[in-house]
Amino acid sequence: ASFMTKDNARASRYFHDIKNTNSDWGAAATYYYAHIAYTENKYETALTEFRHLQNNRNYGDAVPYYIVQILYLQQKYNELLAEAPPLLEKAEQSRKGSIAAMMADAAYKTNDYSKALLYIEQYQSLSKKPLSRSENYLLAYSAYKTGDIEKAIPAFQNAVDGKDSLSQNAMYHIGDCYLKTDQKALAQKAFYDAYKISYDQASKENSLFNYAKLSYELSSDPYNAAIIALQEYVTTYPDSPRTDEAWQYLVNLALVSKNYAAALEAMDKIKFQDIKIKTARQKVLYYSAIELFNARKYNEAIERFTRASEMNYDKSIKPMSLYWAGEASYRMGEFRPSIGWYNRFLISRGAYDLPEYPIAIYNSGYAWYKMKEYGEAITSFRKFLGNSADKDPQMIADAQLRIGDCYYITKQFADAVNWYEKVSRSGSFDADYAFFQLAMAKGVTKNFEGKTSALKQLIRQFPKSPLVDDAQYELAVTYMIMNENEEALNHFQALISQFPNSSFTSRAMLRRGLIFYNTSQNEQALQQLKQVITQYPGTPDSREALQTISNIYVEMNDVPGYLSYVQTVPFARVPMARQDSLTYLAAENQYMKGDCNNSLKGFSDYLQKNPQGIFSPSSYYYRGDCRYRQGEWALALPDFKAVAKMPRSRFTENALARASEIEYKAGNHTAALRLFERLNRLADNKDNLLESTAGMMRCYFQSGRNDSAIIAATRLMTADKVTTDLLVEAHLTIGKSALATNNLQLAEREFNITRKLTQTEAGAEAQYNLAYIATLRKDWKQAEKLAFEVINTYTLYDFWRVKSFLLLSDVYVNTDNVFQAKQTLESILENYEGEDLKQEAQQRLDKLNAAGN
To answer: What is the pLDDT of residues 327-381, one digit of tens each?
Structure first.
């Protein structure tokens, strides 16, 4: 009764008196006496009495729990571990889980981790609820200490929640687990997460240095977190004996992670600047300049190349800094400064043995050529040829052609012929151009036989050259001069038949008409000249044809016939007022002087009165060009389109090129495509042919016409004088088009080519797509590897690096590492500034949280 009324003192006395008797109530009294002692924290008394009942039939199953718990509360862990196993076997089923948990903790606290792991797993199997965070940590640490890393990692992850001491310790050990299994990128991330928790400063510092060390080893510091953390460390502990070590780490880390701005800042803070630091500074300046150069930030690149060239610690960097400063200046069109840089490079120590030495001479020649200083250009190109052993045959042929051009422009035709013949005989790069220029140079010196021979060789050897129509026209004109009219007529006709869209076609028709007229074949002349007027109305050629038709009708004494014909020619019925002619000529004069502001009004006045006038093609084009140069593209577009709709003239190609460019940049891909396709059919100029092919490729891709995009890109890759940038774009476009049509093999091949060709953003995109293809194949290990390559290599292109982090989160989800997926997504949300990908990261994280992960 006293026990039931919680009068433990009286009850204990009664139970004490009964427990040692031989009555049937002795065992029960012992149990309740022990229980009261237990509740009053009299553990030794309780333990002694409970042990008396271990073999009792009624209480033997109940007392093991008390014995184990008392030993646990007394922290007698070794005694507990010695006595507990048989007690566990005898205990009530409902108590076994709790006993196993205490045994696990006792083993853990006595550093017997194999037993701790055994018992905590036994507890886990007996328990009806998930392990708590601390229990997960016990399991994880025990597994970690016994070398079962695969078991340790998920348990440590389950112990993380928030920013308390347990989370910090768990994150630190997750990092160490990944390190032990050579998963350094994951270890790096875990140490960083441990560093962000400020509970234990020693652990925080160790995590920081582990993170920094791994960042250095991996050449990766995705968000500059290690750099920022080290900077914080040296700021917080400026007098620490490890401060200079931290600064040195900062320098090395910034170098390998290509964070050159941070490297320079770190080097400025190191108190003791030894030769290693100074050499590192020169390297940082140079490599950062190269990075800026590749990103086309040429002014910034030149500033750093200049600083690197003024230092003399690394002898190989000084000449290369001079060379690349010259390249940057050249690409900005600053030709005279580029020559200065090239010259300094050429006389610098060690430059002669570098592969860039002849290239610098070659580029100097081009810089002089661009400035129209042809004598200096000749000197440079000839010097290049003298230093060009084992060099690119294409560059050799190109230098020879430019020497020929320089002599031709300066009217030294005999020398020009000599250089053009060198290339034409070799049959190498641009030999078609060499034949054409050879013909022109011979023609100027009235060597018509030599001219016609060179033109015929061009047509015969290079039937697909864009210069064939030029050659046919010049061949026909030359035969006209030689009074070989039949030959002239034949070649003009060949041009008209083979190249109906050529810029020479209207002139070829006109010339045929003139030959017929001059040989008194008036009917044939009228037929040919009227064809010019019908097909090319309002052009200078059609007006000349009309004048000749007038002469023919007069000579035939058929003025009424002429007057009747004129009524069918719209432009002939609009007389050209002298005042309007003067308006146009004044505007043209201002345009040629580069004065767009004054010329615009004149062209507009002329076109308002003469929209179909003789000067309308040039007026529309010049007005459009002025508006284009002033950035008024919306106003320029109708002018260029007006020219494009007119019969072909010398303005047609450029008008199509500008109109297609404007439409494309405005996002009007369908309209741009039509213009690019027409330009591609008409182009005589190789640059326009190249750009129109590239434009078609882009429009096809943007419009989802992937097969057509691949065809256009393939054509672009095989085009004459295709630049490296266009080659990269073509391979990337084929890769993306193939990916869109699920042709993974072709896509993979093209992306691999792209990343080998460039370190620009195109390379980053290609590398990302390779990682994405690996996910489509469910090759998660390869996807992870390739994604980290994007993150670590393309430091300037945050978009593709963050896309790679998003891809990594998908990889982790698919490999049952949801914890790491969430950590990755949280890093994006914490560090990335762009809202586009941040939103994607949030959506993924919300989805994981909603799924209960």
So the answer is: 999 999 999 999 999 999 999 999 999 999 999 999 999 999 999 999 999 999 9
pTM: 0.71
Distance of CA 786 to the CA centre of its chain: 14
Fold annotation for 466-572: 1.25.40
Amino acid at 640: F
**Per-residue 3-state assignment (H helix, E strand, C coil) for 660-681:** HHHHHHCCCHHHHHHHHHHHHH
Q: How far is CA 191 from the centre of its chain?
A: 29
Residue with tokens 């009309």: 546
Give the angle subtended at the CA of 661 by the CAs of 764 and 639, to the nearest 5°: 165
**Of the options 2.40.420.20, 3.40.50.10860, 1.25.40.10, 1.10.357.10, the CATH number for the domain spanning 769-853:** 1.25.40.10
- Dist CA 363 CA 374 (whole Å): 14
Query: Do 466-572 and 769-853 fold alike per CATH?
Result: yes
Q: Is the dihedral of CA 55, 59, 60, 65 positive or negative?
A: negative
Q: List the domain boundaries for the chain.
A: 466-572, 769-853
Q: What is the pLDDT of residues 209-268, one digit of tens each?
A: 788 788 777 766 666 667 777 777 777 777 777 777 777 777 777 777 777 877 777 777
Question: Do residues 643 and 649 touch, judged by C-beta distance below 8 A?
Answer: yes
Residue type, 624: G
Between residues 315 and 34, the one the model is more confident about = 315
Q: How far apart are CA 427 and CA 458, in angstroms?
A: 10
pLDDT at 119 over 60: yes
d(CA 94, CA 111): 28
Residue 501: partners with Cβ closer than 8 Å, 6 or more residues away:
648, 681, 682
Structure tokens at 109: 């606290």
| Dist. CA 174–CA 180, nearest whole Å | 10
CA nearest to 35, candidates 61, 58, 5, 3: 3
Own/partner long-range contacts of 555-562 (Cβ < 8 Å, ≥24 apart): 555/522, 556/522
Whether 499 and 681 have beta carbons less than 8 Å apart is answered as no
- Token pair 């009708």: residue: 553
CA separation for the pair 54, 576 (Å, rounded): 128
d(CA 509, CA 486): 14
